Amino acid sequence: MSERESMPVDVVIVGGGPAGLSAAIRLKQLNEELEVVVLEKGSEIGAHILSGAVVDPKALDELLPDWRDMDCPMAETPVTDNWHWALTKSGKWDMPHLMMPPLMSNKGCYTGSLGNLTRWLGEQAEALGVMVFPGFPAAEVMFNDAGAVTGVITQDMGVAADGSHKPDYQPGMEIQAKYTLFAEGARGNLTKQMKARYDLEADCEPQVYGLGIKELWDIDPDKHVPGRVIHTQGWPLSESDTWGGGFLYHQANGQVALGFVTALDYKNPYVSPFQEFQRWKTHPAIREYLEGGTRVAYGARAINEGGWQSVPKLAFPGGALVGCAAGFVNVPRIKGSHTAMKSGMLAAEAVAAAIAAGQEHTEVSEYEANLRESWIATELKNVQNAQPLVAKFGGDIGTVLAGADMWLRTMGLGLGAMGHHRDYEETQRADLHQPIDYPKPDGKISFDRLTSVSYSFTNHAEDQPNHLKVADLELQRESELGVYAGPSTRYCPAGVYEWLIEEGEEPKFQINSQNCVHCKSCDIKDPNQNINWTTPEGGGGPNYPNM
Question: Cys-Cys crosslink for 469: which of 252, 389, 529, 532, Cβ 3.0 to 4.6 Å?
């Protein structure tokens, strides 16, 4: 065994997304002498970032007030108009803006590539002296004898599928830090471990998720209206007693970002979020924009939907959760970048103060206290019942009740916080439902999954250990297939999972891990929690352009 190299720093940040980079920038703004490392599992900063995105600039204004004059790509396309459609199978009706609480407005927001914004934030961080290491996943957390986090170990490189070391083997490095910030995004592997080790969810509701699937299209210039933002709800999910919605954003360079979010608490195991997205694109109101256009990119990721009542304890000895690792998405607004960035900034301020006071490996309780008194809390409390009301009462009645609750909360009234059920617990037996006959893709507006994955530019080294860990294959056969009819073959938007069934032989669970786009839907929705998503070798996964 080769000895691991070690690198002592002040702060290590696990994840190079908006939250992690905002924390890094704020740390250097407060004390340029601090040694700050950002570890990013993607091949480059922004490679794994996927979002709509319509960005509220509130946090960006606080972090870098002159960002509009600093060649930031997000400044290119301000939102110009905002539509919200309720879809039926062949029609639509506009939801009047007067019905919506003021907090739902996109006035002053910008639409563009969150990946490109993240790349720009990475440049700002490096210019301040932050050490940014893409292609280096954090694979293991280190602790001292007192049980405090003391840093992380990056993943070993050059390990073969059978566990042997290839000629290019390199052991991971120990990044020893006074404080460690976990900014892994939704359902991060190490974040799960921190939640369990420190029982961070003891006093909150369980986190719930949606699966967001997105495509980027070049469309006919005559149909393009820069800054137009469209959100939809209703069809096609209304046909399977499922809820979620679509978006279509007119961004720079004649492109539209369109996507579909399916709440992962759906009951029918035959639902396929990917296929529902493909159906949605065939709606006349959506197809109108796409006809004559060309798809240029595809991707998917999980989205936190639990809201304020699902935010866990944030700080623990030596570390803290920031961004989507904790879950600060405003579900009705479909926005979380601004709250994620603000959480990173608040954590940085608490950590910088602790280091200045000569502390290390302590619990930065000031971060927790300050965040729970910040505008993040104000914003999320106003919408905290929107998701559970729609989940409980359905898209139509639930939307009306959610709107009423948001109005009441805006006026300082409103009901108490509602609870959640874990997504996998909501999945029902297959014999209670009928299979869904999804239409075949036409290759122009709708597409198959494997072709779609090629547009995510996903790549993994072939000869490496499988990063998708199945704890009990017999349980997978008996329950996931036998009881639930193999929902993994439908909830995964990348065709990773297959059941190979041949006469006279036991069904075989095939995992095409090279297809994985790191969406984490398997980790969330497997009905027995029998699949654990872990980080593959550094640089593996999607390479999203402009997403």
Answer: 532
What SS3 state is found at 4? coil
**Per-residue pLDDT tens for 115-134?**
999 999 999 999 999 999 99
pLDDT tens column, 488-515: 999 999 999 999 999 889 999 999 999 9
Dist CA 342 CA 344 (whole Å): 5
- The C-alpha atoms of residue 120 and residue 134 are separated, in whole angstroms, by 14
As a whole number, the mean pLDDT across the chain is: 95
Q: Across residues 126-149, what is the average pLDDT?
A: 98
Average pLDDT on 334-355 reads: 97
Preceding omega of 177 cis (within 30 degrees of 0): no
Confidence check: pLDDT of 378 > 50? yes
The pair of three-digit structure tokens given for residue 284, joined into one six-digit string: 């006349």
Identify residue 459 by its one-letter amino acid code: N
pLDDT value of position 97: 73
* 408 neighbors 328 (Cβ within 8 angstroms): no
User: What is the per-residue pLDDT for 398?
Assistant: 81
Contact (Cβ atoms closer than 8 angstroms) between residue 297 and residue 182? no
DSSP annotation of 222? G
List helix spans (H) across 357-493: 365-371, 375-381, 386-393, 395-410, 423-426, 449-454, 473-475, 488-491
Cis peptide upstream of residue 542 (ω within 30 degrees of 0)? no
Instruction: Decide if 351 contacts 364 (C-beta within 8 A).
Output: yes
| Closest alpha carbon to 112 in 71, 83, 84 | 71
DSSP class of residue 529 equals -
**Segment 27-38, tens digit of pLDDT:** 999 999 999 999
β-strands 54-55, 110-111: how paired?
Answer: antiparallel
pLDDT score of 2: 57
pLDDT of residue 416: 83
Q: Where are the alpha helices (DSSP H) in 165-300?
A: 189-197, 273-281, 284-290
- How far, in Å, CA of 163 to CA of 336, rounded? 38
pLDDT in the model for residue 103: 76
Distance CA 113, CA 128 (A): 23
Helix axes 386-393, 395-410, angle to 10 degrees: 150
| Alpha carbon 348 to chain centroid, angstroms | 22
For residue 447 the two structure tokens come to 């597409």
CA angle 521, 523, 527 (to 5 degrees): 95
Look at residue 389 in the predicted model and tell me its pLDDT. 86
Phi, psi of 174 (to 5 degrees): -85, 120
d(CA 105, CA 120): 26
pTM: 0.95
Report the C-alpha dihedral over residues 298, 302, 307, 310, rounded to 10 degrees.
-170
CB 351 within 8 A of CB 179: yes
Mean pLDDT of 111-117: 97
